[in-house]
Amino acid sequence: MNSLISATNINVIKSGKAILKDVSIKINKNDFITIIGPNGAGKSMLLKCIMGFYKPNSGVIKSKINLKLGYMPQNLDIIKTIPIMAKKFITLKKKFDKISLKKVILETQIEHILDKQLSVLSSGEMQRVLLARSLLNNPELLILDEPAQNLDVSGQMLFYKLLQEIYSKRGLSILMVSHDLHLVMISTKQVICLSNHICCCGKPQQITNDPEFLSMFGNDMAQIMAVYQHANKEN
Hints:
Strand order of the largest sheet: 5-6-7-3-8-9
Largest sheet: 6 strands, mixed
Number of strands: 9
Structural class: alpha/beta
CATH superfamily of the largest domain: P-loop containing nucleotide triphosphate hydrolases
Strand content: 25-35%
Distance between the termini: 32 Å
């Protein structure tokens, strides 16, 4: 079975407002899909529906039997008030073996902060800890909701580079919500533009010419395409 998850004709209505309108998405093996769109577009809600955290009003969601998911939320500020070491948090209520733990520690480059309290970690260190935790069960599909939103530009670039390396080495699939357009266009294979419904979708070089994408992100297009084309020349 090549498909990991398929969501068909998903509709979500809350307080009389349509959050998602007839949204369909399919995630296959080795996909790297990024969902973009304005605030209130329903991006996080779509992730919740796909993961089974929220039941849509209508539509069908099917997933591979025994699919292993990894999830990295936007942030978990509440955990910074808990007196717990980074290593303990990564393994908390997780089934794992020593080989898998060592692998994620090396992958996310967090050896030097394992014995630090979560409360003293920088935003960049905290994001790597969250990423390590999401990878511990060797997921087939990694779902990330605005994973770099609390990082500065330098931190964003480092995080997306790390994510690209993990994607390439592990051969997993990634579904991500992000606002970082200039970096998304470099790292992802497919982009879905969501504004309660799917406005457009396709490969990065295709979607940037779509009229609906241009109308939504026109002010950022020059920067997006300059970075994207420069990266492609280097590759």
